[in-house]
Amino acid sequence: EIHIKEPIEKEVNPRLLPGELLLCEASTVYKYVQEDGSNRGTYGKLVCTNFKISFLDDDSASDDNEPQFKNKIVGENDITLQCVDQIYGVYDEKKKLLTGQLRKYPEKLIIYCKDLRVFNFCLRYTKEEEVKRIVSGIVHHSQTPKLLKRLFLFSYASAAPNNTDGRNQTVMFETLEDWRDELERTKGNVKYKAVTTNEGYRVSEKLPLYFVVPICISEESILKYEGRGIPIWCWSCHNGAALLKMSAFPKEQDDSTSQMQKAFLDGIYKTISKPPYELLKTDDLSSSLPSLQDIQTAYTRFKQLFLIDNSTDFWATDVKWFSLLESTNWLEIIRRVLKKAIEVAECLEMQHTNVLLIEESATDLCCVISSLVQVMMDSYSRTKSGFQSLIQKEWVIGGHGFLDRCNHLHKSEKEEAPVFLLLLNCVWQLVQQYPPAFEFTETYLTVLSDSLYVPIFSTFFFNSQHQRDTNKSGESLKTQSGPFRFLTVWDWSVQFDPKALAFLNNPLYAEKPKPDRSQRKTARFKHQRQLSLPLTQAKPSTKRGFFREETDHLIKNILGKRIGKFINSSDESPNSLREFYDSWHSKPVDYHGLLLPRIDGPEIKVWAQRYLRWIPEAQLHGGGTIATAAKILDLMEEVQSLQVKMDEEHSQAVSGDVHSVPMLRNSARLSSLFPFALLQRQSVKPALPTSTWKDLEDEDDLVKRDDEFVDLSGDML
Hints:
It is found in: Cytoplasm, Myofibril, Sarcomere; Sarcoplasmic reticulum. The protein is an alpha+beta fold.
């Protein structure tokens, strides 16, 4: 028996953005609520445009019961073409990956998304011709290689009115002035200079138009090897020590070329190791951190744990959750990256040493480490505008290949690697360990990760500033001709209205430094609570510390592989690093000073909000950090409304009418899935051990023991 809503009688048409075209559609498509054996769901229309795949049911036609945290561009039943990860067809109860031309069309379609949503569509009741059109259309437009100019980004830019919010405070780093201002802000302008050598991209198409180098570096040196072998400034510490990055020379060279390059590098190193510059420590990230291939492999395994098809699979994996999580190696990579950032921070803060990060292109792991170090050491980077400016500086203008690393064009899976997601996962560890230090919330980070796949913003859809600039000119639909006017993702009003934007700002952000032990204790208690989630790491910390040399030879190797050519104290590094780490953690936290993440044992956690938000079985009823944040927002609204009513003398009046102000959010409806989803249904863990339950799956009476649907309109426990 199938529990369904009646097929929609009235015509429901998709809401199209400027430049969006309807390509194909199918009626009488049945969307399962979740593939859990109950066949609950709703009939509707499945459409594919040049921007998204969308399911339209009768609820789509009304604005009633709209979620509080509504995205104005991408609805809850919308999947942008760039957000589609894999598509499976079900043939006679067997799943098959769909790519390219199809000879036979499936009776069921399963779409796995990069934001970890899973959509199940039944096509049994759809006309055969419509099935052919919609399935082949979805597979073609979301899975096959495409040209850059075919991205919806260009269609939207040419058709949409340019009503961007002028109040955006993010520094874009597209002008020489932006770089000079940043030098002045960090007091780096004494030893470093912003250069115009690459104007017209005459040095390299991979470098930005403007960048900063040590004053002693000549223009000839920059031009000699297309910018390779040149230390490029990232940030200056309060004590004058600077963080630099450098694009390495190719390893496979003939002897004469290799010797010339070595001589050139030696000259550069000697120049920037003399006063007024600090001692220089170089760090080749390709040997001290996992490779991009390792990162991609780990994340591919990791995300499979959250692409849950049904309740049965969820409870089957629950019993072996920790071993599955550990085998992905994703949390270990996060730990190693955070440890490297601590190591760099120790050199800058304690040793007053310049650190030069080296990588083949200096646009992947260099971006991760330099960004993390700045978030840890510079409180400006922990404000919303500061963090956005940091992403612009190090990633967008810095030349991270978003187009290739996110595989937006489906050209080569070999280039794909979740480098930017790795940064957001690392920043999240800091946000959840030290909430008052950040002006933004974990919801902000989650939404930012989702924006990677929304092709109306240019921010994450080019490999370099040069590629963006050369593709900016084009024919416009509204004017005869002219450059495209791309939107930036930092204008959040494009995606959210003011009420929703409130969830991106941290109401408990510490505006002034307040080293308070009680706040630290509270934070730790919250972290321990989070360990009780079914899908977070709670591996007990071993007696052997993460830093102790006898625990793991790998750690020794990581620390030992740093090139210590200009530093004599490299042998003492592990001990001084542990001392630095322990010393900092023994003191009260200055939320506007240096922040060091806790990386021992189970301190590294799964980013629960991003990875569990679509899984009802994993929800905490009435709990979770976001539900707590929503309650705080309610209290703030009450306080603000009281302040309007109160006189200047408010010392005794606060306790008056607290309960008279209506709550904007009904706390009974909140869970850890909020604000991305409200309570969907109560999931009941099977009484039998999971292994036994799996063995008995074929027996009807057990399979039909299903989750109860929670009626949101009623009272809930």
